[in-house]
């Protein structure tokens, strides 16, 4: 439960930081000030540079920017705690041996599953996380629709990110990656990434068992 709380707290802070940075960009765009791309210190520097000489607007934007910097620092602290927890967890270390799966994804998955024995079959995990396609049947119509998106949205998003990394940035020999690349040529990138994420969830559960 403590690990789940840590994951949830970090996730919430990261989302708030994203919301605040987007708000800063949106408010400044209203005044014709386009903040260049960049994250972290680069984002802060770009904002302050654009605000030079505009005291009235600075009084509105800078408090939001200060709140963003403070929350970003707190989120980074929770991230460090999460990485430390992953290093102390044999289960997380095992899952991190998979190309594309980092400390956050591994720890979040372990916390969400809790006890691998809760699932009789590893294949059930994909459906539990909302990564299984919904089937639509009506008369002569019969096709697979979008994924159900049920279950833990955070873990589902992390698995999709891990699948994306596996398909685009990982060059290690991996049967799952090769399978995903073949699907990419047939179905397109997004559907292939979802399929890889679903199979990744199944493999990760099997490894925990």
Residue-averaged pLDDT: 87
Order of helices and strands: HHHHHHEEHHH
What separation lies between the terminal Cα atoms? 20 Å
* Helix proportion: 55-70%
Any idea what the radius of gyration is?
A: 21 Å
Question: How would you describe this structure to a colleague?
Answer:
This protein is mainly alpha-helical and 209 residues long. It has two domains: 2-87; 90-208, no CATH class. The chain is 69% helix and 6% strand. It contains nine helices and two strands, in the order H-H-H-H-H-H-E-E-H-H-H. The protein has helices spanning 2-30, 41-51, 55-87, 90-95, 103-113, 123-128, 153-168, 175-187, 189-208; strands at residues 133-138, 141-147. The chain has a two-stranded antiparallel ribbon with strand order 1-2. A hairpin with a 2-residue loop joins strand 1 (133-138) and strand 2 (141-147). Helix 2 (41-51) packs antiparallel against helix 3 (55-87), helix 5 packs antiparallel against helix 7 (153-168) and helix 7 packs across helix 9 (189-208). Residues 135-145 have low confidence and may be disordered.
Structure in a nutshell:
By secondary structure, this protein is mainly alpha-helical. Helix content is 69%, strand content 6%. Helix 7 packs across helix 9 (189-208).
